[in-house]
Amino acid sequence: MGSIDEEFELLERHINILRTVHGNQPIGLIRLSEMTGIPKHRIRYSLKLLEQEGIIMATPDGAVVTDRYDEFMESTREYVNSLYSRVESLKATLE
């Protein structure tokens, strides 16, 4: 079950980072780590992944979100709602 936990933790971290970047852009790695409480090495990894997905962009002044931010957040919201429904259904079968 570790894989599900790890994926969920990564998604939580991405959301936390994205919301912080969105509200404080441009923002550097150290400030982002201080604001979120997430270690710098994990921030760096998440920023790399989010940049590869085109959701954030590195600038000389720090990270900023791209125009894909709203689309990503909405699709993530829909995905989480879908997961919630599936978990509730699975939970019912276990009772």
What order do the helices and strands come in, and which of them pair?
Elements: H1 2-24, H2 29-36, H3 40-52, E1 56-59, E2 62-65, H4 69-94
Antiparallel strand pairs: 1-2
Helix pairs in contact: 1-3
Portion of residues in beta strands equals 5-15%
Overall mean pLDDT score?
93
How does the overall form come out from the CA principal axes? elongated
Largest sheet: 2 strands, antiparallel
Please state the oligomeric state of the protein chains shown. Answer: single chain
Low-pLDDT windows of residues: none
Gap between N and C termini, in Å? 20 Å
SSE order: HHHEEH
What is the share of helical residues? over 70%
**What's the alpha carbon Rg, rounded to whole Å?**
15 Å
Question: Count the strands?
Answer: 2
Strand order of the largest sheet: 1-2
Decide which structural class fits the backbone: mainly alpha
* Tally of individual helices: 4
What does this protein structure show overall?
With 95 residues, this protein is mostly helical. Helix content is 74%, strand content 8%. The chain contains 4 helices and 2 strands. A two-stranded antiparallel sheet has the order 1-2. β1 and β2 (62-65) form a beta hairpin. α1 packs across α3. The chain is elongated and about 55 Å long.
